[in-house]
Amino acid sequence: MKKLILATLVGGAGIASAQAQSNVTIYGTVDVGVVSERGGAAGPVSKVTSGVGSASRLGFKGNEDLGDGLSAIFVLEEGVLADTGAQDSAGQAFNRQSFAGLSSREYGAVTLGRQKTVLYQALGEVGDPFALGYAGSVKNLFPLAGVNTRTSNMVAYNSATVNGVSGELTYSAGEQAGDASAGREMGAALAYAGGVFNARLAYSSRNSDTAAVAATSTAAAVPGVSHDLGHTTLLVANYDFTLLRAYFSYGVDKGFNSAVLPNLANPYGYAVAPKATTNSTDLLIGATIPVGRAGTVMTSYVHKDDKQFGQNASQLGVGYSYALSKRTSTYLSYAHITNKNGAGYTVGNDTEAGSGNSAFDIGVRHSF
């Protein structure tokens, strides 16, 4: 009997020790709002929709302490349409993030899987006062459509932070037989996080060839050269002046698919559909302004300068968020885009491209 009791105590201590060394967290966001869009060829659109301020999601993340400052880490994150209960990407369970890796306090982290691009992180974490959400999202004009948000088959290295400075390198394999360069994407970022002042310089290069196209292209006959190479350089920063936090972002987009159009549906019914430029620059100037103990005003001016087709666009956005608690907030926002020379940009939000040149949102968000 004594041996049984002793074995039980030892086994319980072992379980407790294992639990202390590893953990798994369930987290998520439920964001639902009413959206009113105007200005599109199909007419006004009013709807209840998910992910206006930030995408609704359900995630699992965990780590295991391996000793000597080394940990095993993982994240599995699924997008959810809170207005219908469906997945936001049919047939892709963990479409937002799915990766595993090793993290060292001294040397940084290496992760493998589907992950955010350096451009997406730079704008979302540093460069956009709307944090990529609401009607005023920078994504309406900056090149963050499709593959510029997340990529699969990524190997990423994030360095440890030293005196506020850190770096990131990413490589996403195209995984196309016969051509290792086709479909691949590479990124790099250098960041400074100082609380009052934050800045990040990011660079992304993507080869949009397929193996079949590259095999028959003239450019492919020259080793290491692709006719479908696009790249973006992005500088973002923000500074806290106490009364407000000012934001600045500037991007340079060159080459094929460097500035994919957020809305490909010819939303204004032009006889000639808008074209995706291969030579453009992007500018954002904005601010967040605290109001009282729980309110925040968000505002920005965003401009797309299309140097190839002259299809320029400017956006003005304003929003207000009120924190009911640490986890729950309400919000409203409005933005308007002025398109020129056949440009077809639309006012969307964090998860939708929008249908017209203006939109008003009001909603609620809860995080857990």
Secondary-structure element order, N to C: HEEEEEEHEEEEHEEEEEEE
Strand content: over 45%
What's the CATH topology label of one domain?
Porin
**Which structural class fits the helix and strand makeup?**
mainly beta
Unreliably modeled segments: 1-20, 215-226
Overall geometric form? globular
The H-level CATH homologous superfamily of one domain, spelled out, is Porin
Annotated CATH architecture of one domain: Beta Barrel
- What's the CATH first level of one domain? Mainly Beta
The overall pLDDT, averaged over residues, is 90
Number of separate helices: 3
**Major sheet characteristics:** 16 strands, antiparallel, barrel
**Quaternary:** single chain
Number of strands: 17
Helicity range of the residues?
Answer: under 10%
Rg, rounded, reads 23 Å
Distance between the termini: 45 Å
Which strand order spans the largest sheet, edge to edge or round the barrel? 1-3-4-5-6-7-8-9-10-11-12-13-14-15-16-17
Task: Note down, in words, how this protein is organized.
- With 368 residues, the protein is mainly beta.
- The protein has a domain at 104-213 and 222-367: Porin (Beta Barrel).
- Helices cover 10% and strands 49% of the residues.
- The chain is built from three helices and 17 strands.
- It has a 16-stranded antiparallel β-barrel.
- A hairpin with a 4-residue loop joins strand 11 and strand 12 (245-255).
- It starts with a helix and ends with a strand.
- Residues 1-20 and 215-226 have low confidence and may be disordered.
